[in-house]
Amino acid sequence: MGCFPCFDSKEEEELHAKNVRDDRREGKPVVESHISRLSSGADRQRMRSVIGSRKESSDRKDVPDLSIAAQTFTFRELAAATRNFRPECLLGEGGFGRVYKGRLESTGQVVAVKQLDRDGLQGNREFLVEVLMLSLLHHPNLVNLIGYCADGDQRLLVYEFLPLGSLEDHLHDLPPDKEPLDWSTRMKIAAGAAKGLEYLHDKANPPVIYRDFKSSNILLAEGFHPKLSDFGLAKLGPVGDKSHVSTRVMGTYGYCAPEYAMTGQLTVKSDVYSFGVVFLELITGRKAIDSSRPHGEQNLITWARPMFNDRRKLPRLADPQLQGQYPMRGLYQALAIASMCIQEQAAARPLIGDVVTALSYLSSQSYNTNAAPAHNIRVIGEKDDKRSRGGGIDGQEERGGRVARNEEGGESGHKLDGSEKEDSPRETARILIRNLDRERAVAEAKMWGENWREKRRANVQGSSDGAGRQ
Predict the structure, then answer these.
(1) What are the residue ranges in the chain where pLDDT is below 70?
(2) pLDDT (tens digit, 9 = 90+) per residue, 133-181?
(3) Cβ-contact 269, 245 below 8 angstroms
(4) Which of 65, 151, 212, 310 is an active site residue?
(5) Is 212 a residue of the active site?
(6) Are residues 105 and 185 in contact, defined by beta-carbon separation less than 8 angstroms?
(7) What is the pTM of this model?
(8) Could you tell me where the DSSP H helices lie in 89-182?
(9) What is the pLDDT of residues 327-356, one digit of tens each?
(10) Are strands 208-209 and 218-221 parallel, antiparallel or unpaired?
(11) CB burial readout 390-419, b (16+ within 10 A) else e
């Protein structure tokens, strides 16, 4: 994996350097730390695909040696591609600017052009971070950056065009003629988005913290294939013996992890929390923050979390637009994963790699859409739940801050017979953890077996060599 420039958390407006190397190149250009050094579209004859210039003063700090495989465009080219940014070409608008659909005259390729608002939230630093990150990071679940424009004070980014828009467009405020996402598609989107995060956390070196994981930043290609977009707030994660990086609190309210919002201490587990929020959006169909709902239901996490402890209420968490067309076991499993991701304590959350393992299994399960709706299936022991409400995600009911126990010393709640026990969220969480441990054990066994075979081959080779010399 290529390496990235390190961004000094104390000076958010400048980029500073650390020593990294690119194993693929021997002669490497140097990227200046100031946005003014980005080549404009007019510089293409001299430098078509590389951002950079030589160090001009010993007072300036260089960022690492690297090359940027992104095209440069003139403002005139992008204006022509979007027909002078006509309103009918507008795809969307946010705090950072507007996104237009366009067609490049040179190649005929359909693209999405983000024109940054000069008075908006995304400044020069965020623009440069996004160009660098998306030029160096490549994965099927990350959006592809085609190029950029830095003509004068114009800042534009050119991406591949993804025809299905964002996940937010398919979850919230749907028009009457738009079909809601079915259960299987939601699980596949969650699994793909998690794989994008896994690449940033585990494959990139050093790790990258996305910092702005939300439904509007998950774009959908054909077949609802998810891709993470908008890397302006991305941050390099801690390396060495550091447990976190300290930075200004940035992101979107409702998605930020509590420890990051309170202390500014950022870890990869902060992204896991944000993923849990988006996953709950996929399950419930609700927005992370919705001021139009009654008091007590406006924040998705505070509304959903109490229901995890009451098995009777779990079906209420399913999106009504699914109309009961989901597997009850799948719902329990999905809620178990979501509840682990949104734990208050960062240390209690799983690593994104474990989430990918669980979701890959969940998204691979086929579901018969012609089956009876889940809300019509009677749950065994439902009448008994009036007296005992155990068996939720956590498998416990708290009364006055204490966990109630039955006479046998176990957790309160009715006993589960075969199939119900198998489907309960408590058992699901245990199964998920057990499966993850089993997969690790299998991987270790395979590695041991390969090492053993290598040693055996080496011994056989050594024996034959010795016999030949005799």
Answers:
(1) 1-69, 95, 119-123, 368-456, 460-470
(2) 888 899 999 999 999 999 888 999 999 999 999 999 999 999 988 999 9
(3) no
(4) 212
(5) yes
(6) no
(7) 0.69
(8) 124-136, 167-171
(9) 999 999 999 999 999 999 999 999 999 999
(10) unpaired
(11) bbbbbbbbeeeeeeeeeeeeebbbbebeee
Q: Are 285 and 180 in contact (CB under 8 A)?
A: yes
Question: Parallel, antiparallel, or unpaired for β 71-72 and 145-149?
Answer: parallel
CA separation for the pair 389, 395 (Å, rounded):
9
Residue in the structure block whose two tokens are 């637009």:
321
Residue 90's beta-bridge partner residues? 100
Q: Are 356 and 195 in contact (CB under 8 A)?
A: yes
| Residue owning tokens 């534009």 | 156
Beta strands in 24-153 (DSSP E): 71-72, 90-94, 97-103, 110-116, 145-149
Whole-angstrom distance, CA of residue 252 vs CA of residue 213: 9
b/e map 10-33, b = 16+ CB within 10 Å: eeeebbebeebeeeeeeeeebbbb
Q: How far apart are CA 47 and CA 72, in angstroms?
A: 9
Residue 236: strand, helix, or coil:
strand
Given CA atoms 74, 75, 76, 79 in this order, what sign does their dihedral have? positive
E-state strands within 294-360: none
Reduce the DSSP state of residue 77 to 3 states and report it. Answer: helix
Rounded Cα–Cα distance for residues 94 and 97 (Å): 5
**What tokens appear for 269 in the block?**
């587990």
Q: How do the residues of the chain divide into helix, strand and coil, expressed in percent and rounded to 5? A: 40, 15, 45
CB atoms near residue 230 (< 10 Å): 25
